[in-house]
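RECORD TYPE: inverse folding
INPUT: structure tokens
STRUCTURE:
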């Protein structure tokens, strides 16, 4: 459970809030039982309820927490689509980069990771069909499997690769 302290705006977990209260008033007995909204409210704080996850975006984005927000008379975690890119200063052997440059680098890394994952899956599918190319396999099986194998080899050439892949099967 997260708590927002009204006087400071600080957001903390229950244990931190309890420790804060004990540091301010060591004689007060705090147990798990008082963790009610009324009790927390009486001690100058509000419960932070879980907010709605951010939705939509692109394959490069995900829902990420960005603080808390008040909705009506309750506080909720706030989520936005991320990542959020910023300008970064030069550090040691890395040059300074603009937010746009950081975004391009991030997307390139994500594309490379996704391409590697798709190729790995494609290679497993190809390996599972290796047996179909033996000399003792009937033509009805080997020709159908050869069609699928060629489709698997062509997967990296598909438009939308690596994010939109259509896997071939024997019925095509």
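DESIGNED SEQUENCE:
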């Amino acid at each position: 459970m997260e708590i927002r302290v009204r006087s400071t705006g600080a957001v903390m977990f229950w244990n931190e809030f309890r420790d804060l209260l004990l540091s301010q008033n060591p004689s007060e007995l705090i147990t798990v039982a008082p963790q009610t909204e009324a009790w927390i409210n009486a001690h100058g704080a509000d419960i932070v309820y879980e907010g709605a996850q951010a939705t939509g975006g692109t394959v490069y984005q995900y829902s990420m927490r960005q603080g808390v927000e008040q909705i009506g008379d309750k506080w909720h975690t706030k989520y936005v689509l991320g990542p959020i890119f910023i300008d970064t200063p030069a550090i040691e052997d890395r040059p300074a980069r603009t937010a746009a440059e950081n975004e391009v680098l991030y997307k390139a890394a994500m594309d490379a990771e996704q391409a590697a994952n798709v190729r790995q899956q494609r290679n497993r599918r190809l390996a599972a069909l290796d047996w179909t190319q033996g000399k003792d396999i009937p033509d009805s099986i080997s020709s159908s499997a050869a069609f699928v194998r060629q489709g698997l080899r062509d997967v990296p050439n598909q438009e939308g690769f690596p994010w939109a892949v259509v896997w071939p099967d024997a019925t095509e």
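NOTES: The first strand starts at residue 2 and ends at 5.
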